[in-house]
Amino acid sequence: MTPELIHSLATWTWLERTAVGQVAFVLVAPRAHSADAVRGLAAALGLREPSCRLPYVGERVTVHGSSRARLHPDGWAHAIGLTVGARWSRYVVEGGPVAVLVGLDPLTPCAQPDAVNEYVITRTRGNRLRMGTASMRRVW
């Protein structure tokens, strides 16, 4: 995948308490309509449809300080940069699970938390989200 494709993506990160405990979330969605490209991203990450059991997709995340992380798809020369908070960073470094979500429909990069939440709910119901769980990749 190209740097241009990576720059066409928008990302969001957050921590959330779920039925299975605390989870660090990453959402990646296109800024403009490019469902084929994001399907390729979802495949390169090993993600599945919401109706399937969430797969563990391996060590996909690297953390770089308290405000930056990267998501690493298979076969991509470039990683996807993520802006993260200090709590998110610390939680992942300490071994917390990461839910990786890829939306197939556009979402504006300036979407606020309520809009992101609505996007996740509606795209999950409409089978327009791909999901999996990941962990941090140790970089030596």
TrEMBL record:
This is Uncharacterized protein. It comes from Streptomyces humicola.
